[in-house]
Amino acid sequence: MKKSITVTINGTKHTHDVEPRLLLIHYLREVVGLTGPHIGCETSICGACTVSVDGKAIKSCAMFAVQADGREILTIEGLSADGKLHPVQQAFWEEHGLQCGYCTPGMIMASKQLIERNPSPTESEIRHGLEGNLCRCTGYQHIVAAVKAAAAKMGA
Amino acid sequence: MATTITKLDTLVGRKIKRKEDPRLITGTATYVDDIQMPGMYHACIVRSPHAAAHIRGIETKAALELPGVVAVYTGADVKDVGPVPCGASLPGLRVPHHHILAQDRVYYVGHPVAVVVARDRYIARDAVDLIEVDFDPTDAVADPEKALAEGAPAVHPQWPDNIAFNYHQENGEVDKVFAEAEVVVKQRITSQRLIPCSMETRGVVADYRSGEKALTIYSSSQIPHLMRSLVAGMLGIPENKLRVVAPEVGGGFGCKLNVYAEEALMGFIAIRTGKPVKWIESRREHMQATIHGRGHVDYYEIAARRDGVITGIKLKLIQDLGSYHQLLTPVIPTLSVLMMPGLYRCKTVRADIVGVFTNCVPTDAYRGAGRPEATHGIERMVDILAAELKMDPVEIRLKNFIHSDEFPYATGTGLMYDSGDYTKPLKTALEMANYNELRAEQTKARAAGRYMGIGLSTYGEICAIGPSPATPAGGWESATVRVEPSGTVTVLTGIKPQGQGEETTFSQIAADELGVGFDDVVVMHGDTSVVQYGIGTFGSRATAIGGTAMYLAIQELKTKIKRFGAMLLDSDDVSYANGRCTCNKSGKSVSLAEIAGAAHRAMKLPANTEPGLVASNFWEPPNFTFPFGAHIVVTEIDKDTGAIEIRRYIAVDDCGKVINPLIVAGQVQGGVVQGLGQALYEHGIYDDSGQLLTGEFMDYAIPKASMSPNIEMASTETPTPVNPLRVKGVGEAATIGCSPAVVNSVVDALSPLGVRHLDMPLTSEKIWKVLQGGRA
Amino acid sequence: MIAQNFDYLTPVSLAEAFDLLNDPGAKVMAGGMSLIPMMKLRLAAPERVVDLRHVPGLNKIQQDGAMLRIGAMTTHHELESTPLVRAACPLLAQAAAAIGDVQVRNVGTIGGSIAHADPSADYPAALQALEAEIRIAHRGGERTVLAKDFFQDTFTTALEPNELIVEISVPLEAKCTGASYQKMLQPASGFAIVGIAARVSMDGGKVSMVRVGVTGLGGSSYRAANVEALLVGSEGSAADIGKAAAVVAEGIDANSDIHASAEYRAHLARVYTARALSAAIARAEAQ
Scanning every residue of chain B, which has its alpha carbon at the shortest distance from the alpha carbon of A46? Predict the structure, then answer.
């Protein structure tokens, strides 16, 4: 029943035999050992598990690992691979866009996609663009500020 | 935007960016579910689908035969494990024996009945479906008022009235004041069940070393030390053979200020199987089986003079306890009673609590824990009184505030308010809102048939919990501060942050006090093998109490540093500043690193001085602290749909001295949005049969970014005399201030229709029904 | 959180997919945005999952005369962002943009969504208003079903077990036509408590064509022909709109749950119908 999959994760190729039902989030966290993406719910609402697959932000708890076969995945760990923080990470730090940090990896990945698609988003566009990511700590205001700051930096 | 640190700047009071963040923004922090151990088992729990039922039998054979399943345990296996603890000691309190797995009955949907242990979590989950429990359902009751009614099903058969306790508190001549009152207003006010919904659910890893007979429990907890004491007792192992580690904790909000069945259950499994075992709560389990918050039905009466002066307050508080007591379940409503008079001078008060069992998951501490309910009550009642007297809600508050020259102020509920200037944040908020112009705009809006509301709350709260005599488990906090041989500083604190940022704020304080760099301070917490005994993080206590313990330890340490400095400088007149000890006569100095090296090398010691540089402090606070503030909310109602728009949200909070404005702003913003969740969206709904209808994020609406307002903020600083840092606490403040401000605003908007009160959450449908003429 | 085990199959042609679907334990997966959460909650437990993502040709968007043909595997994000769709069929782009959140829209497909037929989904309202044609293939042939016949009941469509949706066709909007999709969000899930899609053409100051599609109100989406009949030929004034919108819920057995009572849903349907019609008319007049 197991299937062999080959996935490029943060630039490195991985091949594993996996059960078809293995969720991509469990594959990343428990097989590959990338525990940056988190699990916050089972109904693909909270977005803590957000990673990028072939350049698109997706919820890795709503995708089986077998569906990622042959695709390129970027997780939070790959965002600052060269030791330098990505502007979105830097902005979350500068603007205090996180507290407990649990939603943060997903929030940053979603924010990155948001800015890539809309380089100078308004506050309302940011708030709607992050509807797929829940945060229970910050009230979102500093997250909005971080996305604005990152967009300004990335556009500059 | 955070400030860039330059050397020798004072750090306290500045927007320093957090030292916690680099690991969190790169995905390299370690939460419980990130812990992997060789040969680790996974546990999955079978839970009751019924709110009340007898268990006639449990068939586990098929599950045990599934390849990969290691064991299945049921109630019979764990009947000798001690009960889930309740720390409350109210007179006459009825305490049901709370086994870690159900014995012959279940009492709520989600009640753990059995546990599967397997080689991986997928197999464990499969095996749960193979366990057949023969339930014989009985009648359940899920509403506290229905539970009090004659003939209601008994949650616990031995107590057919469903009453766990009655509590009475009174001050002054209440009956006389009410009999002579010029005006009395009454209102039933509910504070609905809320589900904490920390983004990280609960999780436990237990690891037993049979050689050392030592158990380690990793748990997403706010109180690792208390957990160690209590779980050791449940499992019957010596406390010093149990280590509890709370690693990175992904939000708590009170729901992790507890000891649950699962900690002892995983410890039991680890000891039985000799292998590490992990259990991670699913979101559905979190909704069903982690404590809920609030759950009040309050009957208020306020007596007043015609000029608006409040003369008496009466409260009958019906607390929905759920089916069991968790750690603090019965204590929470007593905090409501303490907070009942709010910021007002009235000392004539009477409160009666009835704690009621229902077939629901227990309620317990959730952000604010008793104080939001009380503040919501008094702030609503003050508005109701103002409406009755046709007074402006600002005017009536100013008339009743405790004056700034009356502190310390003894309340009618037995508290001693430390310091305050309640008009200050209110005036600031009114100026920010441009209150008079808003009222003028509202008049025009009303003439045009629009429903615009302006609501405020002036709230107070009990923080820095608290003096030990007033708490179930000790209310002090501990710190050990070490200067390592190289001169870096290690702080061991008994608190356990879950996002509040004390690694940063404590580093700011320690760096200032010791004159070392911010990055030279490491703050450690959450591991009972590393940190001396402590209490934990809850009740907005961490900086006020834990920070003070650290501050005092540093003062002691500085004395020792100076002794070594004096020895090295061969002087009897030295001072210590900016990380150097200087001879006041010669001007010669030595660095902290040099002193630390000498203190550890110990070639020579000052008289009566031990080697090393370490000091500990266990600080017992003499009082709570009492922060306060004023929130103003402008709303507008969509006449067609009943939808509420938050047009403006103004929050002015006074939490005493501010260590880091960036962190305080974050606490306020997050607090407001959690309060807004209660005011507008959130409700843990059980149907009449005790089924939880809001069991997933698909149905339980915590606010999203698009549902949250931009908050206009300011703060005033009224220091507390209670601690030397002058800080009061801010973790819960904005949640407490928010919900009454929002509801007052919406009621104000609808007041032309004769609306005087609405219960939360203010869903669009509820408002639409009011607009249709049905009074809510 | 954890699905029951299944076999995962990835056909590379429609013919192969049909072979695999002959097995009664097989279930088709497009984006998986509906299926996977149901499997995780064990509300669905297929023995075999047939993932269509390697079947070629199912995600094209192309203009064909007066029609826009959309492959069933086109994602919501592609529909909301493709200039051709935004220009030629703005209603569909708006409905796509109203779905869930960006992560879901990046993966979820129009074919998967409508095959699932959630009574609160957004697309059905738009497809009803667009009188969309749904091309359904089976081994050895295909058939075309109109949206009004496709959506039958809650989670129930005209699809037979061995059939697959391959394409959805919608008309290119004519000149002087405006469209709008308006919904009341269920705050937790983001689904529609009610959602109304309206298309209106104006000709000489009169409503010459109007279509209204409704989702969320009843067990299935529907086209509100009674509303259309009242509005067509009128000037599309606020009063005309109000009169027409008032009948949108007539004869519908409205859903009731913890998020909205039947009475409130019916009311919201009227309000949102008026809003969608007003916006559509304004857009038509702006052209």
Answer: B697
